[in-house]
Amino acid sequence: MNVLKTLPLVALRGLTLFPHMALHFDIRRAKSLSAVEKAMFAGQDVFLCSQKSADVKDPSADDICLVGTLAKIKQLLKLPDGNMRVLVEGRSRVVIQNYLQTDPYFEAEGLVIDETEYETDSELTALIRLVSEEFDNYIKVTDKISPDVHNDIASILNPGHFADVIAANVIKNQKEKQAHLERLDVKQRLESLYTILLREIDILTVEQKITSRVRTQIDKSQKEYYLREQIKAISKELGEDEDEIHALRERIDAAGLPEAVHEKAVKEYTRLSRMPAAAPEAPMIRAYIDLLLELPWTVKTVDNTDLQKSEAILNDEHYGLEKVKDRILEYLAVCHLKKNMKGPILCFVGPPGVGKTSIATSIAHALGRKFVRMSLGGVHDEAEIRGHRRTYIGAIPGRILAGMKTAGTVNPVFLLDEIDKMGNDFRGDPASAMLEVLDSNQNNTFRDHYLEMPYDLSNVLFIATANTTETIPRPLMDRMEIITLSSYTEEEKLMIAKRHLLPKQLAEHGLNADQLKIPADVMRSLINHYTREAGVRSLERQIGAVCRKAARKLTENGDAPIRMTQTMLTDYLGPHQYEHDHIGKSDQIGVVTGLAWTSVGGETLNVEVVTMPGSGEVNLTGQLGDVMKESARAALSFIRANSDNLGLDKDFYKNIDVHIHVPEGAVPKDGPSAGITIATAMVSAFTGIPVRKDVAMTGEITLTGSVLPIGGLKEKVLAAKRCGVNRVIIPSDNKRDLADIPENIRSKIEFITASDIHTVLHHALVRRPEKKNVSDQKSKSV
């Protein structure tokens, strides 16, 4: 019984699928991809209809034949290039009635033709017999149909099914296939098929005659080819031509490969030597053998275990970064005691420009190892790490093996730059592929899809760099030793500029130290007023700008040495680009100096609170994030719950509106570390008690008034120092972090550790709030 069905439709170019037949084909067009994806969620059924012309790249409904096939999707494979490869099986003919939609994919209503029920008469029997006999004759004159197919066809009882299977094996022309599909009457289908069989048998008979006539000519050509090969062999024996294949075998034997690798190379060489030079697979096999020969399997550099020499190299090339230097020297010390030490897997985390990448180069120099850098920023494809399987055309090894090939040794320093900026999509997750690379218990048998053999990465010193750990997957981060690099202090930037940046820029601009001198006070002004960063990249650019101006002045006015002054600096670089905040001139009510961390270092953050008559509404402005808003609500709830201790009426908030504002409203702000700052500003505004102008603070507040630890303490303290703050309130749990702050900064600031908000208020307000008399409140309420 014929039925109407509504299904996605895929337009086929140059293909026709008959019922009861299977077909493999690739899908590239967006509409077809969407239709297949829709079909997979709707029972895997789909309409397949041929295009009237295969030349139409983006067909409309008018470009598609009305008779097609209802098919079942049996297999679906997503290819690396984003396309799909599908295996479908035809079920029934379908006549398209109308299209329900054409975008983003075709969806049509079709009448599915049921051919399971049929009536047999003498004419149908005769047609089946004639077609069967001619198909037997067709098999005799062709060698393209196996006996199994013939036996399968002989067992088919349904006339329509019988005709379609023979047509699929006989009809070659696309238009004839579509015409056969469109014949809904079985008798007409068999009669047309009988005519096609007679024609094809005649054509094949003529082809056999032509083949027999041409074979003599082919035999002659083969004889000539054989003779040429003999001449080539004779020339080789006479030494007139070097056999490249033989030279390749000599390279394999002389390479000193491990046994398993040597066996693999010999096996591939044997395949290569037995195939013609023009064979499509020959270049692929040759490239694979070349990779086996060029990869370092046993070549190893000797580490420089002289700790004093290594320390001198690190100190000479980088100022500061003591944690990194200590870790490398510890590794060298262990290598000196234990010869088969596995390479550590380090991850340097810090803001841009603090020297994460350059210190890795210095580490390779100090160790005496080769250095390889691989940028992971924007990598989305797992094949970038593991390579492609050799079954794909144009397959290449992954970037890990490519880096080892470039290094030429098994123990280089391998830098994985910007590991926090990897992504993932339908092509795989490169971060998951990195799990094996960065696991010291697994990377001795790392498998690249292209190499198809285990490769030992355990001797490699992997160093990853990242700006943040938030985007690094937890399993990947667990495999690395995290070393945090904080922002440079002003003194550190001054020393780096003096020792490294200025000499480098002088050399790049053709100057020497006698021609241009930049005193320390001018360099400090350059650091503070023309750069705002955690590292020194922008500082180096500004020094380069000064050198260019100086070079031009020297060229125009002679070789008189230039000694920079503050006035000259303004002339060269223009007015100050940045001005650091300064503390207020007097104690203020509702204004508190907070401390914030940014990607370019620490900053001060003023929190302002005002109250006005109202109905208890709270307004938060300054482009605050959700976490910061929650901190404000938590602070207000604490104040309401502890109003007695703060000298406030229990219902003080009902008749006032509170406005909390953080200036620089164009800059987004978020995080919990402003909790005690907001709470202090609100208490000051509610009680009318001013806040000390020389106090800054940072810390998270809870509903019970506890002060929780925060991050980025060093950067925040440096920001407080720049704006003239003498006293900084920090959470008690952050006391251990004070050791990371340079002594020259630590000695100039008084640090107050607080475990609860009462300690904060005691040191931040000019006087403590007076407790409210509970009995007075009760009598007043009566």
Beta fraction: 15-25%
Q: Tell me about the biggest sheet?
A: 7 strands, mixed
- Give me the number of helical elements: 26
Poorly predicted runs of 5 or more residues: 238-242, 774-782
What percent of the residues sit in helical stretches (DSSP H or I)? 40-55%
User: First CA to last CA: what distance?
Assistant: 88 Å
The residue-averaged pLDDT reads: 84
Radius of gyration: 40 Å
Indicate the topology.
Blueprint lengths: L2 E10 L9 E6 L2 H11 L4 E6 L16 E12 L5 E18 L4 E7 L9 H20 L5 H8 L4 H12 L3 H9 L3 H52 L6 H11 L4 H15 L8 H13 L12 H11 L4 H16 L7 E5 L6 H12 L3 E5 L7 H4 L12 H9 L5 E5 L12 H8 L8 E2 L6 E2 L5 E6 L7 H5 L2 E4 L5 H19 L7 E2 L2 H11 L6 H21 L4 E2 L2 H8 L17 E8 L2 E13 L4 E4 L4 H16 L14 E6 L13 H13 L7 E3 L2 E2 L5 E2 L4 H10 L4 E5 L11 H4 L3 E5 L2 H8 L9 H8 L1
Parallel strand pairs: 1-3, 7-12, 7-13, 8-9, 9-12, 14-15, 16-20, 18-19, 20-23, 23-24
Antiparallel strand pairs: 1-6, 2-5, 3-4, 4-5, 5-6, 10-11, 16-17, 17-19, 21-22
Helix pairs in contact: 2-4, 2-6, 4-6, 7-8, 8-9, 10-11, 10-12, 17-18, 17-19, 21-22, 22-25
Key structural traits:
seven-stranded mixed sheet; alpha/beta; 782 residues; five-stranded mixed barrel
Structure characterization notes:
The protein is of the alpha/beta class and 782 residues long. The strands form six sheets. It has a seven-stranded mixed beta sheet. A five-stranded mixed β-barrel has the order 1-3-4-5-6. Helix 2 (122-141) packs parallel to helix 4 and helix 21 (626-641) packs across helix 22. The longest helix has 52 residues, at 186-237.
